[in-house]
Design goal:
ABC transporter ATP-binding protein, ABC_transporter-like_CS, P-loop_NTPase, 6-stranded mixed sheet, nucleotide-binding, ABC_transporter-like_ATP-bd, binds magnesium ion, binds adenosine-5'-diphosphate, Rossmann fold
């Protein structure tokens, strides 16, 4: 189980997260739902070790992993899909997915995960992971890399953003695949239709958890709040 216990995060004297408590049990799927600026990506970074909380702890199976780096956490099976994936010049999709051959997977597995994310192997394996890929294609490659790693925990920061109209079906396929291999999913989104696809949800805004429970229930509450933060008058960071 991955757990956030009383996590706070402040920067330049501003509180971004306040007393966040979340638990992610093995093999279950969760969403973190909230408007832009709610603090969702900050939570993802704290889970992955990109930043350290100002207060509180990150626990993995009761072990305090707060001091661990990104690499150390990755070795423990925690992965993050970045909201804005990076691009790499001169590296092909297949090289990227297999970590330049360091990941021991065969071509069939690469083919399978590319298929799941809607990228036919023959058309994409030798493409470069650079500007020639659209944002959506780049995101699909990143999702395929997470599937291939078979992580214990997959934190997906807005996997639906930058994708086209078929995003809903793609997310279904990805969640099905991750469930089959027993990965715990932590899906970050501001779309209620996407949050509904997971079992449990946390509604976050103004850096606080204001509702948690079965996704249907939390989504109903979110809809009543019109996707806005009942704690704040204006919630917008312009994207
Ligand atoms: P979300 O992912 O829910 O849109 P974020 O976690 O990215 O929200 O950001 C939460 C709030 O914290 C936003 O108001 C954002 O501007 C602010 N914030 C995040 N990182 C920093 C930073 N490094 N410096 C200052 N403010 C930040
Ligand atoms: Mg945002
Ligand atoms: Mg974000």
């Amino acid at each position: 189980m991955l757990l956030l216990r009383n996590v706070t995060y402040s920067i330049n004297g501003r509180k971004i997260l306040e007393e966040i408590n979340m638990r992610f049990k093995e093999g279950m799927s969760y969403s973190i739902l909230g408007p832009n600026g709610a603090g969702k990506s900050t939570i993802a970074y704290i889970l992955m070790g990109v930043i350290k909380p100002t207060g509180g702890k990150v626990l993995l199976d009761e072990r305090d992993i707060t001091p661990l780096s990104i690499t150390e956490r990755a070795k423990l099976g925690i992965t993050l899909l970045w909201q804005e994936p990076a691009r790499y010049d001169g590296i092909t999709v297949e090289e990227y997915l297999t970590l330049g051959g360091k990941l021991s997977v065969d071509k069939e597995e690469v083919r399978e995960v590319l298929e799941v994310v809607g990228l036919p192997y023959e058309l994409y394996h030798s493409r470069f992971v650079d500007k020639s890929l659209s944002g959506g294609e780049r995101k699909r490659v990143e999702l395929a890399s997470i599937l291939l790693l078979k992580p214990k925990y997959a934190i997906l920061d807005e996997p639906d953003s930058g994708l086209d109209i078929t995003a809903g079906e793609l997310i279904d396929d990805i969640l099905d695949h991750l469930r089959r291999i027993g990965t715990t999913v932590i899906l970050i989104t501001h779309h209620e239709d996407i949050a509904r696809k997971t079992e449990f949800s946390y509604f976050v805004c103004g850096g606080k958890v204001i509702r948690k429970g079965f996704s249907d229930e939390v989504v109903e509450y979110y809809k009543r709040a019109c996707g806005k933060c009942p704690l704040l008058e204006v919630v917008s960071d312009g994207h």
